[in-house]
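Input:
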Amino acid sequence: MSNIVKEVLSANSSYAAEFGDKGNLPMPPGRQFAILTCMDARLDPAKYAGLAEGDAHVIRNAGGRASDDAIRSLVISYKLLGTREWFVIHHTDCGMETFTNEIMGDLLSGSLKTATVDADGWHDSNAGGGTTDGKYINWLTISDQAQSVLEDVQRIRNSPMVPGDIPIYGYIYDCKTGKLVEVPEATAAGRAR
Amino acid sequence: MSNIVKEVLSANSSYAAEFGDKGNLPMPPGRQFAILTCMDARLDPAKYAGLAEGDAHVIRNAGGRASDDAIRSLVISYKLLGTREWFVIHHTDCGMETFTNEIMGDLLSGSLKTATVDADGWHDSNAGGGTTDGKYINWLTISDQAQSVLEDVQRIRNSPMVPGDIPIYGYIYDCKTGKLVEVPEATAAGRAR
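Output:
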């Protein structure tokens, strides 16, 4: 067992020992909202947004992007579990600003087992699940945070699966200060219709 | 401004006021690992796994599933930001066990703006980004947690983008107790090659 596994399980034992009545929390988020944000290690959405266990859905991926999978999660969050407001929160100093699809293709070309990389990018020749067969991977890199927040709010707003009556707010988390800063044009684009 | 937005910003102000030296944390995760887990409101991965800001990447979606987007995030986590061990953590009483693709299709048929739902499921006729055009949505529902953890560890292990030398561990978080319980066959399937 690696040291990391030992540390995680030890921390988990301490957490479980103080679990209290959290075992009785219901499945639907008590405060009826969801946050889509980046996987970045420096971000703790529960801390930066004041969430207790049971409060809100938290969706995270590289960049906090409105990928199809993030939209899948948001639609489930709304339709089955009752969230009624959504936040899209990107952040300063994001790793997604440090590379491009081309760089990623170069990095992967040395380690891929069956996929191919050509001038059009990366092609997965054997991905399962019916979702990437033969398709170019878009790594969803970012060149401007305010722009990426706006684009992602718009992409969610324009999804045919997303009801018009749910407001979507756009924010940037500042890794230097811990502060959330609104992207007003994104929140405006995400207002309920 | 909604009450939820006011509450989030108020909690954020308190967090930022006590931010201390966290503004100096580097981008790469200090403890060099990543967790893929569910968006469920009852789960706080930082608490249940003992993460401080800066320690580890956290990727979350509905179910904690190894979607293409989760794999995109994990590959970035490894290639660009240096994580060397990954956890897949599903949980008891998951919302993804409560419905099927068919139920979701029925729920969506009343609210879709441009997409169509037929006997084959949901078809997005105008999704942007080149990733879902005309494609059936797989909601990645779950019927058995140990099985879904195993399947997701295997899907990551078998991705042509994932290097063989990274171990992938499979766990289930128990919402009644707060405890992490290993799925040994998943961890075995995810062992480094």
